[in-house]
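Holo model, 1,3-dihydroxyacetonephosphate. Inputs:
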Amino acid sequence: MRSKIVAGNWKMNKNLTDTETLLAELSAKLPDTNAEVMVSPTYVNLAGATRALENSTIEVIAQNMHFAESGAYTGEISADMLLSIGVNTAIIGHSERRAYFGETDAILAKKVAAALAKNIRIVFCFGEELEDRKSGNHFKVVESQLKNALFSLDSNAWGKIVLAYEPVWAIGTGETASPEQAQEMHAFIRKTITEGYNAEVADEVSILYGGSVKPGNATEIFSKPDVDGGLIGGASLVADDFVAIIKAI
Ligand code: 13P
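Output:
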């Protein structure tokens, strides 16, 4: 059975003190849940976060990682560095990385391969822009993002992959995809994986929805059969909101 997951993508928010405060609040308020709960503070606070959550079921994950093992990549972070501080999962392919840092499908395929080579689990993000949806190209765009970065993997690699469908027009805009739009795309993603691999791989992969998920809309979005949880931006920065979203699943 695929996992239910609620993951917070903190992006470039929270200094050290704010990180410690939020982690302490989350630990104290974490509800009983069968879902996996993840948080991703910024790089400089990852090691502290893994220590602070040592006795917690909340997993600390990275927002990004580089594809090279080591070397002359100023400002970058390798898989080994993450593993050495107890971080075993990384977000790869976030639309902000694609848009502002030039991460192409080809680069993302290299990052995916590098993460898998080190047994790092991946939360792989993808999703169409507003123009794609307006012009009816959203299925095509999503299909090519998936295929270009992931479809040369062996089927057994998919056990290490979590997908996060995040339509760019819904990120940080307050305009969420409707539960029906999310379900329609998630079902399409599962069908695409069934065709590229098989039904077992497609059934086992968790597909999260991301884009303006809030306490007020989470229950309805999570109630859809192909939505296995959420990747939460803004609402993951407020303990009570994130906890409410965890309760919704
Ligand atoms: P918001 O929840 O702030 O829209 O962000 C979604 C997101 O980008 C998570 O990765």
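Residues 9, 94, 166, 171-172, 210-213, 231-235 surround 1,3-dihydroxyacetonephosphate (CB under 6 Å). The chain has eleven helices and eight strands.
Archived with the compound record.
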